[in-house]
Predict the structure.
Amino acid sequence: MTPSAAPSITNPYTLSSARGQDDTGIVTAVRRLAPLMASGRTRLVVAFIATIVSSIAGLLAPVIIGRAVDISIRNRDLSGVLRSAGLLLLAYLAGLVATYVQTLQMGKVGRYVLFNLRNALFTKLQQLPVAFFNQNKAGDLISRINNDTDKLNQFFSQALVQLAGNVFLMIGAAIFLVSLHVRLGVAALLPALVVLLLTRATGGWVKRRNRASLQALGALSGEIQESTSNFRVILAFNRVDYFKQQFDAANTQNYQAAIRAGLASNSFIPVYGLAFNLAQLVVLAYGFVLIGGGQATVGLLIGFLLYVNSFYFPLRQMAVIWSSLQLAMASLDRISEVLALEPNMPQLPPDASTPSSDAVLAFERVQFHYPGGTDVLREATFTLERGKTYALVGPTGGGKTTTASLMARLYDPTGGRVLLDGRDIRTYTPADRARRIGFILQEPFLFTGTLLDNLVYGHEELLAMSRDEVAARLTERNLLSLLSRFEQGLDTKVTATGEGVSLGQKQIVAFVRAVLRDPEILVLDEATANIDTVTEQLLEQILRELPASTTKVVIAHRLNTIENADEIFFINGGEITRAGSMANALDLLLHGKRDS
Amino acid sequence: MAIVGLTIAANALNLAVPRIMARAIDGFASDRLVSGTLVAEFLAVAIGIFAFTWLQNIAQVFASERVARDLRTKLVAKLATQNLAYIQRVSTATLLTNLTSDVDAVKLFVSQAVGSMVSSIFLIIGASILLLSINWKLGLGVIAVLPIIGVTFAVVLGRVRKLFTQVQQAVDRLNKVINESILGAALIRLLNSQHHEYDKFIAANTDARNISLGILRLFASLIPIIMFCTNLATLMILTLGGRFVIGGSMSIGEFTAFNSYLAILIFPVIVIGFMSNIMAQASASYLRIGAVLGATTPKDPGTTIANLRGDVALDHVTVAFGDKIALKDVSIAVKAGSNTAIIGPTAAGKTQLLYLLTGLLAPTSGRVEYDGRNLDDYDKTTLHQQVGFVFQDATMFNLTLRENIAFSKTVKDEDLEKAIVTAELKEFVDRLPEKLDTMVSERGTSLSGGQKQRIMLARALALNPRVLLLDDFTARVDATTERKILDNVHRNYPGLTLISVTQKIAPVEDYDQIVVLMEGEVLAAGTHHHLLETCPEYVQIYDSQRSTQHYEPVHAE
């Protein structure tokens, strides 16, 4: 898929597999990485100073040794040798401290980049609407948050230290080389220049291959996530072979992509070594010529060869760092992709509010379709009055859940408006909306924790209460008895995957969680479908005892639920029709054109 | 092994370079001419190093990726033999870490550490020998620093491994929080509780950060100490070597070579320092992978391959999770071709009962039988092809609709077609632009609850099963569709043994047997009329549904 492919319009939350920058120049890299390091500026400065100190110490060592050889040893001056040794020890001690400081500080920068990036990614995920999650695999998102950020961390804490140190060492060594002997120095540096140009020319290619490899890892991660969380279905249908087959396909794809990336990254590393050896040869041969011409000494040549070492060792490490940088940039692409997504459901500025007396919720010519899908609602207009009970009926797939979702702004209409208390629902803050609207989802969800954690989840007031106070409030609302089905009452441990808790029990928790929060509007989307009918009567009793001002919207297939409604809406084929009477609703259900 | 060979070859050549240079310098110093052969020799060595290193790198890429792929394949093959209880206990979050970052750590070890370790150790030994051969006294002095370095390594690595295990556990927790925040995305948005998820995430992330900072501190001290130790060796060369040269027992060329070999010695020691990080991480990860690979698998699978008649029986079955008893001494007999309903309050153990019948759950005591034979005796593949299970909550895979229903490439087209028609999905499928090849998203979010439920049914029916287990199947399907579907099932799959967990009595009134299950025990069993007369709890359930009764005539139309 090309970056400019059309789906970005219909699917705003599709994470492309080909986007990203191909410019891999070091300047671009620094520019993109700089903001990540902003919080660690002091650390970077300290680390950089430490790097300079340790590099100077490292560069001084050959000078001291060279001088010791040329002056002291040649002149058979042992005390001079010892003086040089003393200086060398000082340089090494400085190097010891500086390397410690440098490694620690750069490592910290890496860890904090990792920490901050993960937080930023997670925060972004929390800002994105439900539609985003419909389109992206959990496993791939987890891979982006965990694996891709870690690649960046590895680069920062390991490679960047070396990068800074090596660049400094190389520049230092290069200056020494040229200043010791201009022509010999330039000759020694020539092979390096060729290699650097070659690397620069191929950087984009290396990065693209790394990116493809990361993408494949994300897909693999998605496959694992999907299979292991649905393992019971795989077992019950004896599709373990299918599971293996699916996995093998993803695994093989990942393998191939990784091989391609690995070959691209690793092919250049030996070239750096070759450059080193060639430089040695050039210096040696040219050096002899120069010595022959009386323009250099053997001592100079030995020192020169040491500096060639000092220049090319870091250069060889740069080869490894370079591929690590390409991997980091590819990871950054995948991370930036998520960070660049803008939630397309902003809060609008308050409009001229016309708070009406009774209409608590209204649809004004509401249109809706899912990305790339056909219309679920066409010009739907209706009003819900405060304190009444409404039933939404219709065939499966007719649009009941979608209609309910629009009431709670899980999605925005593609046309028209939803009004809450006379104001466009888009002008409310999320907190305000959450306080007013209670919604029991078709598929109940429990977070890992205790039952109590799940009931008070995300509600400031309830969270501030003691266990007993919550229990008292539950009793007050006749909700506590519902929880008797849990072995250890409020302290029963539950998990998100829900082992040991039945679907009916989860629905009870979701019901209690919603009712406990005193919403103005309570939407029940097949909220009691898997609860036994005796318990269901209890729930209905509780619903009847809610304050008279509570508006209830019920989606259910059971007739008794519909029967208790003040008004029935029939939803099918994009239309919402007022059914009038119960009998009419049934008639529509039975004889109306099924649209699913 | 190829890697080791190539590594050694490349490094042996590397070691030759200073020798050639020493010869050149000494030769030049003694006024002999530098011949073209020396240049040729040097070039040959350089090209040799390049070729061997290149091949070594390529071999490393292949080796490490193969190791990663094979480890994953092995892990998955092992998981495939595990039962549900194991997967749930270990959790998706941990398995995901095992299969991604743990495998990655091992891979990194193979791709970077193995080669570098081998070449480093080779270089250290080689350089040591050469040092000794040039001047054994000086050589010994230099080599004396190696044990100090070794001890430092051992101490630090011992402490760091535990921390790495902790880091991976912290990553497991991160996975879990992210996973829940994605699965519960809709709820979180409805409750506007994003900041609570963020708090949970921050806590896990802070944990991971703090542990890795602990690791960092250890490594930050390790590397400089090692470098310092090797530097002390250089110092020794300068002082002692200087003395030897002054004393005349060593030539200047030898002294230079000595320094060059030391440079060769220092580099691998530092490399080992950096690699030790990767090594420690890999060994912690490998332990975690080993735990999965070494986990006990369920006892020997059965081997009986038989065409089921369809008799199903539970014989004094008890299921307990720890001291919590889910099912207590349950005995139910179902005749081939008959219809049985299981009814009872929420959390009575109805779903567990169906899990028992599919072998997803093993009884703590008692027997589960098909045609009078213990379920354990059957070959699972053939058994599962004959027992269809429709789960209560819909599970969709990120596959095409066809694959979601057939869920296997062995399902015949006509069976698929029959299943789709029976589940009343024909109209729905035909209206999709890409029909059966439409992609279904992971959480099936583009489908309504009822559609998913019917896809689940079609998935079970596509097997052409002898026994069909329905778990609260009709909860999300409207009454009309429900009736149609059940009629279709009876018509298209004659002789099918049907066991249906349900909340609604009306659709099952004419069933051969209704079992009332309460708090894990069978309270009563019999026909609808028998239960109405003998079982007060059944009557209570029946009464709770009576309010809907007078609409039934409209219904049955």
The two ends of chain A are 32 Å apart (CA to CA). Chain A touches chain B through 172 residues (CB under 8 Å).
